[in-house]
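Late entry, written up from scratch paper. The run itself happened at the end of the previous shift, but nothing got recorded in the book at the time, so transcribing now.
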Amino acid sequence: MNNPGRYLVSLPPINGADAVSGSPYFTANPRRSLQSLGYFGDARLEAHTVHHVPLEYGYRHASVPYFSGPGGITCPGGNTGTPATRVTDWALDLRKDEASIRLTIMVKF
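Output as recorded:
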Protein backbone atom coordinates (compact mmCIF):
# COMPACT_ATOMS: atom_id res chain seq x y z
CA MET A 1 0.00 0.00 0.00
CA ASN A 2 1.30 3.43 -0.86
CA ASN A 3 -0.31 6.15 1.23
CA PRO A 4 1.31 9.47 0.26
CA GLY A 5 -0.55 11.60 2.80
CA ARG A 6 -1.19 9.06 5.58
CA TYR A 7 -4.91 9.74 5.22
CA LEU A 8 -5.68 5.99 5.38
CA VAL A 9 -3.60 5.42 8.51
CA SER A 10 -5.14 5.00 11.96
CA LEU A 11 -3.40 7.07 14.61
CA PRO A 12 -2.21 5.38 17.81
CA PRO A 13 -5.10 6.06 20.25
CA ILE A 14 -2.92 7.60 22.94
CA ASN A 15 -5.12 9.55 25.37
CA GLY A 16 -8.02 9.04 22.97
CA ALA A 17 -6.36 10.68 19.97
CA ASP A 18 -8.28 10.44 16.71
CA ALA A 19 -8.20 11.94 13.22
CA VAL A 20 -9.80 15.19 14.44
CA SER A 21 -7.59 15.79 17.50
CA GLY A 22 -4.38 14.56 15.87
CA SER A 23 -1.43 13.04 17.69
CA PRO A 24 2.07 14.34 18.37
CA TYR A 25 3.35 10.74 18.14
CA PHE A 26 2.31 10.03 14.55
CA THR A 27 1.65 12.91 12.21
CA ALA A 28 -0.91 12.76 9.41
CA ASN A 29 0.88 15.58 7.57
CA PRO A 30 0.17 15.41 3.80
CA ARG A 31 3.91 15.63 3.08
CA ARG A 32 4.66 12.47 5.11
CA SER A 33 4.10 9.18 3.30
CA LEU A 34 3.69 5.62 4.49
CA GLN A 35 4.32 2.50 2.45
CA SER A 36 3.38 -0.88 3.87
CA LEU A 37 3.07 -4.50 2.85
CA GLY A 38 1.91 -7.73 4.39
CA TYR A 39 2.10 -11.47 3.80
CA PHE A 40 -0.16 -14.07 5.35
CA GLY A 41 -0.39 -17.83 5.05
CA ASP A 42 -2.07 -20.69 6.83
CA ALA A 43 -2.20 -24.44 7.13
CA ARG A 44 -5.35 -26.21 8.28
CA LEU A 45 -5.90 -29.51 10.02
CA GLU A 46 -9.42 -30.79 9.38
CA ALA A 47 -9.79 -33.66 11.82
CA HIS A 48 -13.53 -33.87 11.30
CA THR A 49 -16.08 -32.12 9.10
CA VAL A 50 -17.03 -29.78 11.95
CA HIS A 51 -13.59 -29.21 13.56
CA HIS A 52 -10.89 -27.14 11.87
CA VAL A 53 -7.56 -26.14 13.41
CA PRO A 54 -5.88 -23.37 11.37
CA LEU A 55 -2.27 -22.35 12.07
CA GLU A 56 -1.68 -18.88 10.63
CA TYR A 57 1.47 -16.83 10.05
CA GLY A 58 1.44 -13.13 9.26
CA TYR A 59 4.13 -10.57 8.53
CA ARG A 60 3.66 -6.82 8.07
CA HIS A 61 6.20 -4.10 7.29
CA ALA A 62 5.90 -0.31 7.14
CA SER A 63 8.33 2.35 5.92
CA VAL A 64 8.06 4.17 9.28
CA PRO A 65 7.56 2.74 12.80
CA TYR A 66 3.83 1.96 12.97
CA PHE A 67 3.21 -1.39 14.71
CA SER A 68 3.08 -1.71 18.50
CA GLY A 69 6.25 -3.13 20.08
CA PRO A 70 6.65 -5.02 23.38
CA GLY A 71 6.50 -1.74 25.36
CA GLY A 72 3.05 -1.02 24.00
CA ILE A 73 1.27 2.24 23.29
CA THR A 74 -0.52 2.84 26.60
CA CYS A 75 1.08 5.58 28.67
CA PRO A 76 1.62 5.22 32.44
CA GLY A 77 -1.61 5.81 34.33
CA GLY A 78 -3.70 4.87 31.30
CA ASN A 79 -5.14 7.02 28.57
CA THR A 80 -6.48 9.83 30.74
CA GLY A 81 -4.74 12.93 29.36
CA THR A 82 -5.53 15.40 26.60
CA PRO A 83 -5.48 13.72 23.16
CA ALA A 84 -3.27 16.15 21.24
CA THR A 85 -0.54 16.58 23.90
CA ARG A 86 2.68 14.68 24.46
CA VAL A 87 3.08 12.69 27.70
CA THR A 88 6.26 13.74 29.55
CA ASP A 89 8.95 11.18 30.44
CA TRP A 90 7.39 8.44 28.28
CA ALA A 91 8.10 7.14 24.80
CA LEU A 92 5.80 5.24 22.50
CA ASP A 93 7.16 1.80 21.43
CA LEU A 94 6.57 1.44 17.69
CA ARG A 95 8.29 -0.95 15.26
CA LYS A 96 8.55 -1.13 11.47
CA ASP A 97 7.94 -4.90 11.39
CA GLU A 98 5.38 -7.21 12.95
CA ALA A 99 5.34 -10.99 12.72
CA SER A 100 2.66 -13.14 14.31
CA ILE A 101 1.68 -16.79 14.64
CA ARG A 102 -1.89 -17.71 15.52
CA LEU A 103 -3.38 -21.09 16.34
CA THR A 104 -7.16 -21.20 16.46
CA ILE A 105 -9.88 -23.82 16.74
CA MET A 106 -12.97 -23.45 14.62
CA VAL A 107 -16.07 -25.52 15.30
CA LYS A 108 -18.96 -25.46 12.84
CA PHE A 109 -22.49 -25.99 14.17
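The chain is about 0% helix and 40% strand.
(Scratch paper discarded after transcription.)
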